[in-house]
Write a structure and sequence with these properties.
The chain is α/β, with parallel strands linked by helices. The protein folds into 2 domains: 284 residues, Aminopeptidase (3-Layer(aba) Sandwich), CATH 3.40.630.10; 129 residues, Roll (Aminopeptidase i, Domain 2). Helices cover 29% and strands 26% of the residues. It has a 9-stranded mixed sheet, with helices on both faces. It has a 5-stranded mixed sheet with strand order 11-12-20-19-15. Strands 5-6-9 form a 3-stranded antiparallel sheet. The two termini are 32 Å apart.
């Protein structure tokens, strides 16, 4: 029986909903890597361990995890490395927000509150009056030492209530400003002061993990919004969810890799933790993770140093990170001739000071890929009098010496707890990344 082809608009909505489901299952970078891993396993990828000997088979599909929140997946190409090089896409699994402190719970005024640190650069005001919860990883004592377990509370567990306007009369004129130490602790419940508050919170964790409270050793937990992602708009043309920056790029890269069969070049999807705080970690883009994987692929392919360097010279890296969409309510925030519009295609990001890795050649190469995929494209430059953010693009390009371009899907409210983007743009990004893997 011949199936009726899916119309492009309907396919885009299917892909957008798949993205929202992916994000909602991934409220922390550790959950994001777990979600990626489950997709890879379903598509025949084999997990490798860094401490073990790798034996890679021709055209094989593999992945490796470092630090629990960074993952690199790759498909070996049919051509030799020196003839075809690598086709690589990089993105990041972490998002700006709030992280729980090691001794998080404390009591005051009959309430148990949770102390948090600010991770990266979130829009803190957007965390107020939301149904918040906790997700991440917890290390638990075992008979053989300890093991790490994922933890996610589905129900609303925490809240950061706003101060009433009667006590903050200028909030609508001057904006909501929160002291990061004294005004960010989240309300957890009613309880006593001191040790009792800490015990109450740890018991809550232990109950969920089905372990003894005294067996909980450490944790890395972040706050997330329990509201599910949605497709919205008069014609259902937009999406809204947390962590679009940058799980949307992770999902696009993963989807493109899974759809790539029998590529000529070795295809790599590298998803890193810690981008939002500078990437300076063993598992971040500034670490050795990607170069280690590339070197081991080369060694398994019996490529000597000369062949490996020739392969890198023929490689291409796409740094996929979300881009700033033009907001018509705030026209003065944008460079006049570089308005990136939602649902008008991937954005090529350029910065003369190398905050992005794009140059004329790599931009042209990406434009050619867009044309091959039948995808529109846009170009973006930040206002000259505003500080420009950066990505993993310049880091990877300088570490590996490979041509690199910075691109992203346009979005509104970047670093808000609730971000928005376009349904079509996500489909466009998947299509052009797939074209790159097959180039």
């Amino acid at each position: 029986m011949i199936k009726t082809p899916i119309k492009p608009q309907n396919q885009a909505k299917v892909q957008a909903q798949d993205l929202l489901d992916f994000i909602d299952a991934s409220p922390s970078p550790w959950h994001a890597v777990n979600s990626v891993e489950q997709h890879l396993l379903k598509h025949g990828f084999t997990r490798l361990e860094e401490a073990q000997v790798w034996q890679l088979k021709p055209t094989g599909r593999y992945y490796v995890v470092r630090g629990g929140a960074s993952i690199i997946a790759f498909t070996l190409g049919s051509q030799t490395l020196s003839d075809s090089g690598f086709r690589m896409v990089g993105a990041h699994t972490d998002s700006p927000g709030l992280r729980l402190k090691p001794h998080a719970a404390f009591g005051s005024d009959g309430l148990v509150r949770i102390g948090v640190e600010v991770y990266g650069g979130p829009i803190l005001a957007t965390f107020t009056d939301r149904d918040l919860s906790v997700a991440g990883r917890v290390t638990v004592r075992t008979t053989g030492g300890f093991e790490t377990r994922l933890l996610k509370f589905d129900d609303a567990l925490l809240r950061l209530p706003n101060l009433a306007i009667h006590m903050n009369r200028e909030v609508n004129d001057k904006g909501l400003k929160l002291n990061k130490q004294t005004e960010l602790p989240l309300i957890f419940g009613i309880g006593e002061d001191g040790v009792e508050a800490d015990r109450q919170f740890i018991n809550h964790l232990a109950s969920s993990l089905e372990v003894k409270a005294e067996d909980i050793l450490t944790w890395e937990l972040n706050v997330f919004d329990t509201q599910k992602g949605v497709i919205w708009g008069a014609n259902q043309e937009f999406i809204a969810d947390s962590q679009l920056d940058n799980l949307a790029s992770c999902h696009a890269a993963l989807t493109a890799l899974l759809a790539t069969e029998n590529p000529k070049s070795t295809c790599v999807c590298a998803l890193f933790d810690h981008e939002e705080v500078g990437s300076e970690s063993a598992a971040g883009a500034s670490g050795s993770f990607l170069s280690d994987v590339i070197n081991r692929i080369a060694a398994n392919s019996h490529a000597d140093d000369e062949s490996r360097l020739r392969a890198l010279a023929q490689s291409f890296f796409i740094s996929a990170d979300m881009a700033h969409a033009y907001h018509p309510n705030h026209p003065s925030a944008y460079e006049p001739c570089h308005h990136a519009l939602v649902n008008k295609g991937p954005v090529i990001k350029t910065n003369a000071n190398q905050r992005y890795s794009t140059d004329a050649d790599t931009a042209a190469r990406f434009i050619t890929l867009c044309e091959t995929a039948g995808v529109p494209y846009q170009q973006y430059v930040h206002r000259t009098d505003l500080g420009c953010g950066s990505t993993i693009g310049p880091i990877i390009a300088s570490r590996l010496g490979v041509p690199s371009v910075d691109v992203g899907s346009p979005m509104w409210a970047m670093h808000s707890i609730r971000e928005s983007a376009g349904v079509l743009d996500h489909s466009y990004m998947i299509a052009v990344l797939k074209a790159m893997f097959n180039s």
